[in-house]
Write a structure and sequence with these properties.
Length: about 280
């Protein structure tokens, strides 16, 4: 298939491009330079002739979404509508979504979560018309080599380990997250593409199924890097105490399993990339 990947310059997007190419697809990388999601005409021209799209381009930080809710909605919802409008009949779409969305209950109250929920609903409704086949991947915390965003947990801890800096922990470090290796997340996009039959829609949680506490991540970084990370605790943040993913649906519906997502493997691969980057800036 000829597959376009929006957000191809991002951490997960780069891995998805590589995984699709390795699977034999013809891949077109779409970045901000290629097409502005806020301009539907640009999107339509860029996606002309593709068979499928893996749509990852989005505002992804909750803090940024709160600072600019309107811009977040323009990008996350408006951009998704532009992609949907550009796709030919019978095309396939894999949407990058968030594990913050549950099968029941209200969407998150922040603009990021609410906009991702709205985008998912739009994709579902278009798929129900028979115009395309779609899978929404509700991703857990993707981590691993190539992530330089220090607002996220693992890159922040690795940077502290590399620089001998103090790491600030919200609360007592007992908050639980599900980390999934970026290579496994990319493989999920390849698997989802294969089952996105026209007229179908499914929302599938994607995670390792191995929830870990923040303090366990700190211990793993010390174990792998050989550098103990100094820690300072502050008041717990207003965030879910636990995010856990059951990967059974991804296994049953996509034929996908997390093969690289043991905690030490994620940390080791990310640490190796961090050290290499420091040596060759």
């Amino acid at each position: 298939m000829r597959v376009a990947v929006t957000g191809a310059g991002g951490f997960v997007g780069r891995a998805v491009v590589a995984a699709l190419a390795a699977a034999g697809h013809s891949v077109m990388a779409v970045t901000r330079r290629t097409a502005d999601l806020r301009h539907p005409a640009d999107v339509a021209a860029t996606l002309a002739g593709v068979d499928a799209v893996c749509h990852l381009a989005a505002v992804v930080r909750v803090r940024d979404s709160r600072a600019d809710p309107l811009g977040t909605w323009r990008t996350n919802v408006g951009g998704t509508l532009a992609v949907l409008d550009a796709l030919p009949p019978g095309a396939r779409l894999v949407l990058a979504s968030t594990a913050a969305l549950a099968d029941s209950g209200p969407p998150p109250v922040h603009p990021y979560g609410a906009s991702k929920h709205a985008a998912e609903v739009a994709v579902r409704d278009v798929a129900a018309s028979g115009a395309l086949g779609a899978v929404s991947l509700r991703l857990a915390n993707v981590a691993g080599p190539g992530d330089a965003d220090r607002t996220r947990l693992l890159p922040a801890i690795l940077a502290a380990a590399a620089g001998g800096e103090e790491f600030v922990v919200n609360g007592d470090g007992s908050a639980v997250r599900d980390l999934v290796h970026v290579a496994d997340a990319a493989d999920a996009f390849v698997a989802a593409l294969a089952v996105a039959e026209p007229g179908s829609f499914r929302a599938v949680p994607v995670g390792s199924g191995r929830p870990v506490a923040v303090r366990e991540v700190l211990e793993a970084v010390a174990r792998v890097s050989g550098h103990r990370v100094p820690v300072r605790h502050r008041e717990a943040a207003d965030e879910p105490p636990a995010v856990t993913i059951d990967p059974a649906r991804a296994r049953d519906e996509l034929g996908w399993t997390a093969r690289h997502s043991a905690l030490d493997r994620i940390v080791r691969d990310a640490w190796t990339a961090t050290v290499a980057c420091d040596r060759h800036p």
